[in-house]
Amino acid sequence: METEEKYLIAQSQTTMETVQVIQSLAPIVAAARMFGVSESQAAVVMLTGHELGIGLAAAFQFVHVIDSKPSISPKGLLAMIHRSGLVDVKVTRLPEDKAKPLIGYECWMKRRSSGFGHTARFTLEDATRALLTEGSPTSGGKRGYGNWEKYPENMCMWRAIGFAADVVCPDLGGGMYRPEELGAVVDQDGEPVTIDAVAVTTLPNDDVTPTLQELVARYTAKAIMAANDGRIPATGDELIAIATKLGADDGSS
After folding, report:
1. What are the strands of the beta sheet with 104-111, ordered from one edge?
2. Is 188 a member of any domain?
3. Does the structure show a pLDDT above 60 at 48?
4. Domain boundary at 72, 102, 128, which?
5. Exposed (0-12), middle (13-18) or buried (19+): which is 239, by Cβ within 10 Å?
6. How confident is residue 142, by pLDDT bands cut at 50, 70 and 90?
7. To bridge 107 with a disulfide, which of 22, 28, 123, 164 should be the other Cys (CB 3.0-4.6 Å)?
8. How large is the average pLDDT for residues 97-114?
9. Domain range for residue 117?
10. How far is C-alpha 154 from the geometric centre of its chain's CA atoms?
């Protein structure tokens, strides 16, 4: 029982020395623009990672600030589950049928000490109902659902893993939400590819002006910031200019 209980509290005790180190590193991380975070966000990420037993630098790979809230990626959550040695995990690709080469994935997890287990699944039909794919009833054929179209296997797999972990071992991830639960667009590894919400003015013709979400899904937030002099685009003109520049760089325009 002792091995179970220790995960209901911070796995690494926070001392004044730790806080001082984090405070000294936060401005450096923010200035480097490697992770797209402010000083305060950098401090939150490092403090959260430290309490979960993750190194200060490694925390930026697993902990992400979405809409001012810390979240943990499903890959980071799975890494912590494996490290704990407390949970058995099995991930299964659901059987295909003739009409659908991919149905989805399911994930089974069980606590070794108590025997409590749960199976969660996520399918492409679930994604459509959740308005995540281009085939969603209200998508209107708009662009912006690229990662679900390009990486359906991984997207379904990480959702199933996350939902199973929510039920069987929420304590291992500190009870944090995953990025997609906070509205972030995620890549094939469940990592967020959005920039924190900003007001973007679009032009009347939606077919001409790409959305910020579309650009991030295609080129990554880092590339967009670099193409816009380190700033988050705030107007339709900026979005068009960025799309033109990045499109020319990759030969697509």
Report:
1. 87-93, 104-111, 117-123
2. no
3. yes
4. 72
5. buried
6. very low
7. 164
8. 91
9. 76-182
10. 13
Please tell me which residue, 160 or 197, carries the higher pLDDT value. Answer: 160
Both tokens of 112, joined, read 């070794």
Q: Do 82 and 160 fall into the same domain?
A: yes
The predicted pLDDT at position 204 comes to: 38
Cα 201–chain centre separation: 25
Looking at the structure, do residues 178 and 81 belong to the same domain, yes or no? Answer: yes
pLDDT, greater one: 235 or 128: 128
Average pLDDT of the segment spanning 159-184: 91
Residue at 132 is within a domain: yes
What is the model's pLDDT at position 1? 43
Model pLDDT, residue 198: 35
DSSP for 2-62 reads HHHHGGGS-SS---HHHHHHHHHHHHHHHHHTSS---HHHHHHHHHHHHHTT--TTTHHHH
Buried/exposed 78-87: b ≥16 CB within 10 Å, e otherwise: bbbbeebebb
Residue 188 has pLDDT above 90, yes or no: no
- Whole-model pTM? 0.69
- 39 inside domain: yes
Question: Quick one: tokens of 39?
Answer: 């000083």
Tell me the DSSP string of 84-152.
HT-EEEEEEEPPP-SS-S--EEEEEEEETTT--EEEEEEEHHHHHHTT-STTSTT-TT-S--HHHHH-H
- Are 178 and 88 found together in one domain? yes
